[in-house]
Structure formats: C-alpha cells, structure tokens
Write the structure tokens for this entry.
Amino acid sequence: MNAFLYVGGEIRPEGITERPAEGDLVIAADAGYHNARRLGVTPSILVGDLDSFGNGEIPAEVELIQHPPEKDYTDTQLALELALERGATSLTFIGGLSGRLDHTLSNLAVLEYLRAKKRPAIFTDGANRVRFLRNDSALIPRSQAFRYLALIAADERVRGVDVEGCKYPLKNATLTRLQQYAVSNEITGNCAFVAVKRGGLWIVESAEGQTEL
C-alpha cells in the first residue's frame, strides 16, 4: 500500500506532481495538514502534538491521534511509524525539507531508515526531491520541475558509483562524505541511471532559481 505523508515546512506547489490515488493511506503530521489542504488533499489521519497546527478546524471525518509535546519523536517520525503500522510499503513525504535544519536532517535520516526496511520513499517540497540509495541502482526520470541532480555521500567512502544519462557521467567513481563533488549535474536523457556498488547516498533533484551556497 502506498502512503502519502504531508508534513511541515514550506512547499512549492507547482513542483509537486505526486498525488495520492484511491486506496492510498493519507496522513498529515501536525501543520502538514495545511500543506495537504493547500494542494487540495484532505488527509484521513492527523497525527502529532499540534503545537504548530495553528488555527483551523479539523473535519469530523479526519481521525485525530494527538501526542503530548514532550515526546521522543518528531511529528514526521510519528506519522511514519503510523504508516508502517497500517501496512505502508512505499511512502511519499510532502514537505519537510525547509524550515528548521535539525528537522530537515532528521528527515534525510528517515529516508536511510526506510531504505534499510526495504520501503521505497521520497521527500519532496516541490523545490527539491530526495531519495536514498544503498548498494543498489535507480532510474530517475527527467522532470520539468527539477533541473539539477546531485549525489550526496552518506558514508565515509561510497564506491563503484555509475551515473548515465547526465551531463557529467561517472564510471566506477568513489564519492567521499567529507568532500562532496557530485552536485549540480543535469539529466540529459529521458532518465538518469544511478548505481552504487558499496555505500549509501542521497539522490537530490533541485529546481532552478534557488540560491547556490
């Protein structure tokens, strides 16, 4: 079963093409409810401590699972665990890549956690889209919403990295965590092929027009 999880943070609606289909599990984490409604989606479940929910009514048909503010997990992590408990086999997170840096970094770790559980997952806010790959390969379709493609090493050394269908291809390359150089690539074909023999990395798609650092 697919699960869509709407979480907090700014979103760029025109860059979000992922939408839940009939039968998908749709969960909002706290203020992520407002992101869902902005995209014309009504979640079936709202979970979190609601400390950032603000004003707004919660429809009676929305299942509310409220937690105390003093808790070990973020609202996104609570939504994630709920989705897994209810049988999610793949997960799409909308939001969660802007705002507080600690939450963003935590969300990147969520992708690695789900990969270890063999649950395909992505985070997207419309300006960026991120997935995690370890000892595996992936096809990344070319998208009008995202110009740039980056590979960010998660381990000290990520070996045997191949990239095809991009402006800057790689063949059996080694990426290192302390010196990230595989950024600002561009998909030139219908899709990019990314393969990793040993190690983990985040695959990041980014929209044009954002500030470079």
The helical segments are 32-38, 75-85, 101-116. The chain has a mean pLDDT of 93. Residues 101-116 form the longest helix (16 residues).
